[in-house]
Amino acid sequence: MVDKSALGTVFTLLSLMDTVGALFAGPIDALIMKRALRMEGVWKGLPFMFALVCCAVSTFALAYVKPKSHVVLEEAEDEERRSFLGAARGEDGDGRRV
Predict the structure, then answer these.
(1) What is the pTM of this model?
(2) Rounded to 5 degrees, what are φ and ψ at 90?
């Protein structure tokens, strides 16, 4: 799905998003916990309800993301894949057993 030359950029972006998310989630979670401890009954579980809502929103958002259509492999990559699979089955590059 990601070009090999852009792989480092993708991992950097994921790491940045994780850090920014943790930067905001920590204080928000602490505030919700502080308020929930003052409440009675089922509202003591407010931090868990907040986490449930965040996970549900993320799940629904990811459900609507569609990957690009199938990309045809280049001939060199296809040949490399065939030789690798053949080696795993004990065949040489022409499909004959060794």
Answers:
(1) 0.55
(2) 85, 25
